[in-house]
Amino acid sequence: MNKKTINNIYWISTGLILAMMLFSAASSFIENPDGAKMMEAMGYRPYVFHFLAVAKVFGVIAILTPGFPRLKEWAYAGFIFDLIGATYSFYASGFPLKDWAFMLVLVALLACSYIFYHKRLKLTGAAANAKQV
């Protein structure tokens, strides 16, 4: 795979997943009766989603900021924990598959972004430098 293709796949997958994370963060602060019912059905209080929303914004900033490879790894880890936790919460609360299947698409999109982040590092030789940090 050439450098241009790797960069394109990285930026498309990263842009989509980060846009979804920002959308999710913003919607946590908007009053929504359906959202309140969903939180209640899963047994969560609103402050949990507010905390996660702030963490998502920081994660987006970490991934978009050049450098700081360890911080990016933590941001990717936080996003995967968030997505897997949300998916399991939907499943364990008895929501039908149609309500949480999109979460699996987001997990795959995040994995694509992460894989191509590392492919880009290898292309630039930054992977060797990142391991020394």
UniProtKB/TrEMBL annotation:
<dbReference type="Pfam" id="PF13564">
    <property type="entry name" value="DoxX_2"/>
</dbReference>
<dbReference type="InterPro" id="IPR016944">
    <property type="entry name" value="UCP030066"/>
</dbReference>
<keyword id="KW-1133">Transmembrane helix</keyword>
<feature type="transmembrane region" description="Helical">
    <location>
        <begin position="100"/>
        <end position="117"/>
    </location>
</feature>
<keyword id="KW-0472">Membrane</keyword>
<dbReference type="InterPro" id="IPR032808">
    <property type="entry name" value="DoxX"/>
</dbReference>
<feature type="transmembrane region" description="Helical">
    <location>
        <begin position="47"/>
        <end position="67"/>
    </location>
</feature>
<feature type="transmembrane region" description="Helical">
    <location>
        <begin position="9"/>
        <end position="27"/>
    </location>
</feature>
<feature type="transmembrane region" description="Helical">
    <location>
        <begin position="74"/>
        <end position="94"/>
    </location>
</feature>
<protein>
    <recommendedName>
        <fullName>DoxX-like family protein</fullName>
    </recommendedName>
</protein>
<keyword id="KW-0812">Transmembrane</keyword>
